[in-house]
Amino acid sequence: MSVTSATSGAIIFSGATLLVALFATASIYSQLTSMWRELDAEIHNFKSLTNDIWADMVRLGAGTPANRQRRQSYGGYGATGVQEPPKDNYLNNEK
Questions:
Q1: Dihedral angle computed from the Cα positions of residues 64, 74, 84 and 62, in that order, rounded to the nearest 10 degrees
Q2: Which residue positions does the secretion signal occupy (predicted)?
Q3: Residues 5-63: pLDDT tens digits?
């Protein structure tokens, strides 16, 4: 085997390796951009869904001071109000 044929073989092998590496890089980049677009679409769908749900909640008046009962009015969590007796107490139903 002469030096010329060994050099030619090394150049061909390194060129083929370089082409495979470039193809692999392009393929990985393509897959990443595809996944990125898919993720963006999912985030957009989720955002529109949550915005619709929020609009429904606002339309129903959820969380407005008009329909909110304060803790003090029912005595929950150690509040100072008068606590209502339990409505479905199984001990009071026994005879």
A1: 10
A2: none
A3: 999 999 999 999 999 999 999 999 999 999 999 999 999 999 999 999 999 888 887 66
Instruction: Assess if residue 88 is contained within a domain.
Output: no
Which residues, 6 or more positions from 79, have their beta carbon under 8 angstroms from its beta carbon? 71, 72
Written as six digits, the tokens of 57 are 């909640």
Q: And the tokens for 22?
A: 């470039």
- Residue 5 host element (H or E): helix 3-60
To 5 degrees, how large is the angle CA 47–CA 51–CA 55? 175
Identify whether 95 is part of a domain.
Answer: no
- Report residue 17 as tokens: 């390796």
Q: Which domain holds residue 49?
A: 3-83
The number of folded domains in the chain is 1
